[in-house]
Amino acid sequence: MKKSPLFWKVSTLMGCILLLLVPLFMVSNLISERASYRDDVEDTLRQSTSGPQQLTGPLIAIPVTEIYYKFEDNVKVEHKRSFLHFLLPESLVVDGNQQVESRSIGIYDGQIWSTDLKLKAQFNTDKLDELKGETITLGQPFIAVGVGDARGIGAVKVSKVNDETLTVEPGSGISGQQAGIHIPLTWETLNAKNIDLEMSLNLNGTGSFSVVPVGRNSELTLRSNWPHPGFMGDYLPSKREISESGFQAHWQSSWFANNLESQFSAIEPPEFRSVPAFSVTVATPADQYQLTDRAIKYAILLIALTFMAFFVYETMTHLRLHPMQYLLVGLSLVLFYLVLLALSEHVGFTPAWIIASLVGAMMNGVYLQAVLKGWKRSVLFVVALLGLDGVMWFLLRSEDSALLLGSGVLAIALFAVMYLTRHFDWYSLSQVKQSVPKGEPDDDALRIWK
Question: Coiled-coil annotation: which residues (predicted)?
């Protein structure tokens, strides 16, 4: 079998494909490297402005100092502990208007956003009677609002409690949760049975925006000019509308679903970043690096189909192709992805795909005209290559149907090979060629296979 020309032909083609894996691996590494540069731009914007933001609150926080006694070695010992008691709103309504802006650093883009927020919260103070006692001392209460990154806090335009304008101070006032703002309150204010809070502030950030539904009933309505929202986190919006001009979404939750009241009633409050929240991120659609990386995963399929077409052509005709000719055509297919990557950074993915396909078609068209001995055959293969490029483009754009389309392409290719070679005698390729008598020229003497 090892003396069979068919065996050596197939083995050599497999070797050519393995050799082409080396430049494909290099191009794949280059894609990852360029993508990391893009990620560095996003990190730079985050460091220069502010990061993801999570709005927690408003909450009424009351400092509590409690004296309690424990028996230690049969001796009654006095102990003291201090903590914050939180009063969560009965209802919380947040209305936001988000404007997303793209910033460029070199050839790379990133997004920052600015959100104007209006908060309305209603508190019921009936449960404050439970804090009164001879061993309990209460400090000055305040309203706390936590955020993810204090650098993103813009102007606080309105802060009214029961129609009384109050002063806003920096910092959340909660130990371990420093980012945010707080509003000092008086006990005269808390004597009212119901407390209505109205606030308006501007919050800037990058990446995600979240609101913790701390109210017994909480609602968030957010409008944005960004057409690519990424709804994530613990709750999906109950309503959403997405168009080319932006999106609008509405979330709703209650203590029955999130159990936040019990979490904040503990002596040690939870980490603000660990509690469930309504979340949306300014998602970047599949960019040129993701698409190019996805495309190069189909490179072996493209090369294998091209080599299969040449192999069938050799089988059906008397023309023979040298392994170097296979390699050169394969390298032109690898070069397609490098050209695609370079152009997509400047003109976008789809125009880059078209240009790279035409460049590859021109190179192979001129080369195959000489290899295949005629323009007609060359044009036929070039059209087939352009057709494969078109199919690959649809595979990338149709993620949900990629497996179906890919399976269909392979089935059609296999059927074409089976149909074209249905009358071919494969045993004829396995026969060792008879030696040429001395004195007669052998045109195939320098060929790797016959």
Answer: none
Q: Grade residue 431 by pLDDT with cuts at 50, 70 and 90.
A: low
> Closest by alpha carbon to 364, among 343, 335, 338?
335
Question: 191 Cβ partners below 8 Å, 6+ apart?
Answer: 125
HSE (CB half, 13 Å, CA atoms) of 217? 2
C-alpha to C-alpha distance for 212 and 277, rounded to whole angstroms? 4
**176 domain-assigned:** yes
Q: Average pLDDT over the chain, rounded to whole?
A: 81
Q: Would 444 be classed as within a structural domain?
A: no
Q: What is the pLDDT of residues 45-55, one digit of tens each?
A: 777 888 889 99
Query: Is 107 exposed, middle or buried, given 0-12, 13-18 or 19+ CB atoms closer than 10 A?
Result: exposed
Residues 14-53, buried b or exposed e (16+ Cβ, 10 A)?
Answer: eebbeebeebbeebbeebeebbeebeebbeebbeebbbbb
User: Where in the sequence is the domain holding 315, given as residue range(s)?
Assistant: 5-39+288-430
Look at 410 and 368; give whichever has higher pLDDT.
368
Lookup: tokens for 419: 């149909």
Output the domain CATH number for residue 86: 2.60.40
Q: What is the mean pLDDT of the segment spanning 94-101?
A: 92
Record the tokens describing residue 258, joined without a space. 């999130």
Give yes or no: residues 227 and 256 share one domain. Answer: yes
Q: Is the bond into 58 cis (omega within 30 degrees of 0)?
A: yes
In a domain, 242, yes or no: yes
How far, in Å, CA of 332 to CA of 393, rounded? 18
* Shared-domain flag, residues 27 and 66: no
d(CA 8, CA 2): 7
Domain count across the chain: 2
Q: End of a domain among 258, 282, 306? A: 282
